[in-house]
Amino acid sequence: MLEAMKQGQANAIITQTISEIERYAITHFQKEEFFFQRFNFQGSAEHIKEHQDFREKVSSFKAELRTGEVTLTIELLYFLKDWIDHHILDIDKQYSECFRQNGLK
C-alpha cells in the first residue's frame, strides 16, 4: 500500500485491500467464534466485540473510499498495524490455551 501510495496508485490497492480484509473478517471471525462457543471460551464476549469493532471500521473505510477521502491510505495502514500488534499478537493469545486444551493446534 505504501508503495502504491508513493506511485499515486493508492486507490486501486486500497479497494483490493479492503475487499481482502472483508473476506478475512468473514471467514476468520466465523471460525474463531464457532470455537469460542464450542469450547465455552470465557473471554468470548469481549473478543467478539473486538471483531464487531473491526467490521465497523472496515465499513467506515469503505464509505471513506466512496467519498474519495485523501488520508484513507495512511489511516488504513495504521489500523492494520494496530490490529496486528494489538489483536493478533495479544488478544488472540488469550484463547490459544483454551483451544489447545480442546484439541486444536
Summarize the structure.
This protein is mainly alpha-helical. It has helices spanning 2-6, 10-38, 44-67, 72-91, 93-101. The chain has a single domain, classed as Hemerythrin-like (Four Helix Bundle (Hemerythrin (Met), subunit A)), CATH 1.20.120.50.
Describe it for me?
- This protein has one domain (2-101): Four Helix Bundle (Hemerythrin (Met), subunit A), CATH 1.20.120.
- It is built from 5 helices and no strands.
- Helix content is 83%, strand content 0%.
- The model has no long low-confidence stretch (mean pLDDT 89).
- The relative contact order is 0.14.
- It has helices at residues 2-6, 10-38, 44-67, 72-91, 93-101.
- The protein is elongated, with a radius of gyration of 16 Å.
Shape: elongated
Helix coverage percent of residues? Answer: over 70%
Low-confidence segments: none
Find the CATH superfamily: Hemerythrin-like
CATH topology: Four Helix Bundle (Hemerythrin (Met), subunit A)
**What count of domains describes the coordinates?**
1
Number of strands: 0
Alpha-carbon Rg, integer: 16 Å
Overall SS class: mainly alpha
Share of β-strand residues: under 5%
> What's the rounded overall pLDDT mean?
89
Please give the CATH class: Mainly Alpha
Named at the architecture level, the CATH assignment is Up-down Bundle
Separation of termini?
A: 32 Å
Order of helices and strands: HHHHH
Total number of helices: 5
Sketch the major β-sheet: none
InterPro entries: Haemerythrin_Fe_BS, Hemerythrin, Hemerythrin-like, Hemerythrin-like_sf, Hemerythrin_metal-bd
GO molecular function, one term: metal ion binding
Protein name: Methyl-accepting chemotaxis protein
Pfam families: Hemerythrin
